[in-house]
């Protein structure tokens, strides 16, 4: 017989390990993207590689990370003191800038050592090589996006693989920053190992394994119970990406949602084939987006772990935009297509349970990657950020303005930190008035962010919702599409597409206006 109080306590105890890992990673990191924006995630896994607990970090990281752990398990036999590293999107990764470190945790008091589980963290590195600074290019194959690292041992038996370390740093533009962030990731995993071992010492290894199993079973039971409260039926919805950065043709994402008793089938048949451009999403991204939506619809009381997905089947046609095959370019799938997957799933759920579902949020992460030569510090620099926008209005309230939505959960880069670290100045950072959709409840407003370049640089923009605004619901209006442009030193204005690469001069100003959220309800 299960003890609900014990299950609740162990659930929070395991989550606190992941939270402490995150604190360690943030404090030790070098780059503003990790230290300030907190573009990382930490989690705890059982001995089978199932996600047991996570911190409140980035949904697109956490939903996909179990496949990284599984890839590491399949590639190598892990021993005490080992640390695996992986970023390969086709072996459990998401896109190349996201580097994952996986560390096994053993019961040191037994001979031979007994595996207790794993701790892992994933962090977005501001550069991992590739054809443009920031490693977010308008690529046409994954090889252009940066250094590909399959599941390999970065640390073996407690000893750093110096040759691999040297190889990694030789392929990036900012090796000092990368080394600092990687060391912070190693430190975060050591913290997780220590805390999980301490918990095992306190309650016993056998009991810890039982508790982990029960937390997973509890999530499955709760998910099934909540699924059973939804109206049975088949619900369809589709939406499009503006383009893939290479061809102007929109890319369709379609979903059919089957709700049957305490189970669900999510079928992406009808989605466009994978594209030449970089908006292709690998299967872990689609799983992560699906898990996120179900968690939102069913309620936050469901512990976010692998048990949640047991009653949910995801079918994504191989070779499609939501299940790309190598060597398709994928760097934008993680950040842009993931958002549209959420939009189509919420659109389907809006037919099944309209009282729970908000209008579409901005539907993009507004990725900006900037790099070049910093003349003041006499070294290369690479900067990456995502910019918030408007959230969709709900059936009971207006949407929030100027916020990161859905598959991202990062903070902004404080102006002081940005200007201190890079040859950039923030000319303007403000709300974009009246950009939210109209309705009984209006959508949240987007953001206007203007960056002044103090030296020549290369800029990559990966954004969407530039031709079609986020949809409204129940008669609400669409949010305003975003807009990108470059103001040159002579005052001329150059309109920029949603996805582009360009060279800029000192004194140029990059203006990013992000979409507003959709409105909810008719004004009549």
Give an account of the 3D structure.
The chain has 524 residues and is α+β, with helices and mostly antiparallel strands. It has two domains: 4-218, no CATH class; 358-524, no CATH class. It has helices at 4-28, 32-35, 59-62, 65-75, 162-170, 175-203, 205-227, 283-298, 331-352, 415-421, and strands at 40-46, 51-54, 83-86, 98-107, 114-124, 152-156, 159-160, 233-241, 251-260, 263-267, 312-315, 367-374, 379-385, 424-432, 446-453, 457-462, 483-487, 493-496, 499-504, 509-513. It has a seven-stranded antiparallel sheet with strand order 2-1-5-4-3-6-7, sandwiched between helices. The protein has a five-stranded antiparallel sheet with strand order 14-15-20-17-18, covered by helices on one side. It has a four-stranded mixed sheet with strand order 8-9-10-11, with helices on one face. Strand 17 and strand 18 (493-496) form a beta hairpin. The radius of gyration is 22 Å and the shape is globular. The N and C termini lie far apart (55 Å). The model has no long low-confidence stretch (mean pLDDT 95).
- What's the gyration radius in Å? 22 Å
Count all strands and give the number: 20
**Number of self-contained structural domains:** 2
Helix content: 25-40%
Query: Number of helical segments?
Result: 10
Query: Strands of the biggest beta sheet: in what spatial order?
Result: 2-1-5-4-3-6-7
